Description:
It is built from 13 helices and 6 strands. Helix 3 crosses helix 12 (250-266). The chain has a 6-stranded mixed sheet with strand order 1-6-5-2-4-3, with helices on both faces. The longest helix is centred in the N-terminal third of the chain and has 25 residues, at 32-56. The N and C termini lie far apart (57 Å). The protein has helices spanning 2-9, 32-56, 73-80, 99-102, 108-112, 133-136, 139-142, 157-176, 190-202, 212-218, 221-235, 250-266, 277-292, and strands spanning 10-11, 60-67, 89-93, 120-124, 179-187, 242-246. The protein has a single domain (2-292), classed as Rossmann fold (3-Layer(aba) Sandwich). By secondary structure, the protein is an alpha/beta fold.
Amino acid sequence: MEKDIFKDLLAKPGKNHLVSDFDSSFTGGISKQDAKEQLAKDIEKLSDLQSMLYAQDRYSILIIFQAMDAAGKDGTIKHVMSGINPQGCQVFSFKQPSTEELDHDYLWRINRCLPERGRIGIFNRSHYEDVLIAKVHPEIILSNKLPGIEKIDDIDVDFWKRRYRQINDFERYLTENGTVILKFFLNVSKAEQKKRFLERLEDKSKNWKFSSADIKERQFWDEYMKAYADVLTKTSTEVAPWYVIPADNKWFMRYAVGKIIGERIKRLNLHYPTLSKEGLEKLEKCKKKVSDINF
């Protein structure tokens, strides 16, 4: 079943993709109870793997979440990473760029937040905002103050081709230097998004999650689906593929994300550092000294 999940959820590199090619309600034949039990086990395994990742200090893990509003990014991060030691994990949420960030290239703020070796970094939204929301609302590009981009008409097909290439080159560079990149598009249906918006409006404990901007962006649903299709087609690569995670059932979404993260980190063959012969001899001397101490 796990292999089927990887097969069905992977946006295969080199292929053309539409968001509609992926079933947002897919559950892979697993029950809700089984998924919850398996997630609990995977969280424990992930905790052990993180401990070795931190001790080995050779790799870093970058987990990227992109989604439409109300797809469940925050909840997925909270549940899947619940067993992680906070000292070895960092989460960044990328909002509208600041004045300082706009005075740099669009990847500058991303570079500043990359996880160091031994750590897991989580991006709640990412550099992909610059080929998603910026593609739906190209006027955003004008604020980047780029040479040769003076008006909307200057943002042509070649501009976006360059952006996809830049992102692919950036991610290839990171992977070649020890960063494992996992990219998740949480695929929620338009009907399910509406249901969750209504829940936010009706449940006082969720009112704070609602923003009128969410309704505004929902009007551009078709444009966003096309932008996501372009991202899946142009930036799902062998070194950093996209996983399209069904998000209509939160329990399955969290299970799938946890399983994929754990399996990918496991492939690194992590282990705790071993001491040299000299190091072991020094350790034995230290043990003797501590044993001889009279308290």
